[in-house]
């Protein structure tokens, strides 16, 4: 049996992960970790001191994920990271640490198979359009902006094209930030935070006489669980570093 710990176990995603792990025939929920609970471990260190943990699934906060990941990799605990907000240099550090410690690490900005397909389609479309922007929409309790999915999408698109503002005139923002944040190869990202959303993203491509829209909407957090389980089993079997669910689909 795969001994699984869930960090952020009392959050909305964490609760779904705990239920999903419990329902698997080859997994055991070894520890629930959350600082807010009376019946949970308050830290990974505390849980690891009492329980055998083969792999930790983390859905916590941007401010804590980097330290959580470093602790796991330095202590032989494989990790699946669903928390977004890691910086590029932090991802590179974890990649090197994973290889140095020979301990698997899986980072995914999005675990929904539909969202990952949207990102893959956007990368394909990027070959044929010189203008593109991303709009991502999330619930108003999401702490980081732009979303990890939007950042990863922009990165994948930038690998296919080196500029996405072709033909644009010089711009002046009369209200700062109205054109969104500028990411890889000048892809503008616009973040919306509003109650009622779970997670949505729309990638807009334009050229003379046409607009292409690629959109994905998550309407229930259960849509992420298949990807989480896929990543968990991959890390157990392969014990490597992977960034993005598209690499194992």
Secondary-structure blueprint:
Blueprint: E1 2-7, H1 12-22, E2 27-33, H2 44-50, E3 55-58, H3 62-74, E4 78-81, H4 88-101, E5 105-107, H5 113-125, E6 131-138, H6 148-158, E7 181-182, E8 188-193, E9 199-207, E10 210-218, H7 225-238, E11 241-243
Walk me through what this model shows.
This protein has helices spanning 12-22, 44-50, 62-74, 88-101, 113-125, 148-158, 225-238; strands at 2-7, 27-33, 55-58, 78-81, 105-107, 131-138, 181-182, 188-193, 199-207, 210-218, 241-243. It has 249 residues and is of the alpha/beta class. The protein folds into two domains: 2-107 and 221-247, Rossmann fold; 113-218, Dihydrodipicolinate Reductase, domain 2 (2-Layer Sandwich), CATH 3.30.360. It has a six-stranded parallel β-sheet, with helices on both faces. A five-stranded mixed β-sheet has the order 7-8-6-9-10, covered by helices on one side. Helix 5 runs parallel beside helix 6 (148-158).
């Amino acid at each position: 049996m795969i001994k699984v710990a869930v960090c952020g176990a009392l959050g909305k995603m964490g609760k779904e992960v705990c239920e999903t792990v419990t329902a698997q025939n080859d997994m055991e929920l070894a520890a629930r970790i959350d600082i807010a609970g009376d019946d949970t471990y308050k830290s990974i260190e505390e849980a690891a001191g009492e329980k055998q943990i083969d792999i930790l699934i983390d859905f916590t906060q941007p401010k804590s994920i980097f330290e959580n990941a470093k602790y796991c990799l330095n202590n032989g605990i494989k990790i699946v990271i669903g928390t977004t907000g890691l910086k590029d240099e932090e991802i590179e550090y974890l990649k090197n640490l994973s290889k140095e410690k020979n301990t698997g690490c899986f980072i995914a900005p999005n675990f929904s198979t539909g969202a990952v397909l949207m990102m893959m389609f956007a990368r394909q479309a990027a070959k044929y359009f010189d203008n593109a922007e991303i709009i991502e929409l999330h619930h108003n309790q999401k702490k980081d902006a732009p979303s990890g999915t939007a950042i990863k999408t922009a990165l994948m698109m930038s690998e296919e094209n080196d500029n996405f503002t072709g033909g644009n005139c010089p711009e002046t923002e009369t209200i700062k930030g109205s054109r969104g944040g500028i990411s890889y190869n000048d892809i503008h990202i616009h973040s919306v935070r509003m109650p009622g959303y779970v997670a949505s993203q729309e990638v807009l491509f334009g050229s003379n006489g046409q607009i292409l829209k690629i959109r994905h909407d998550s309407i229930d957090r259960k849509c992420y669980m298949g990807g989480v389980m896929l990543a968990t089993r991959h890390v157990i079997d392969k014990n490597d570093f992977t960034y993005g669910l598209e690499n194992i689909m």
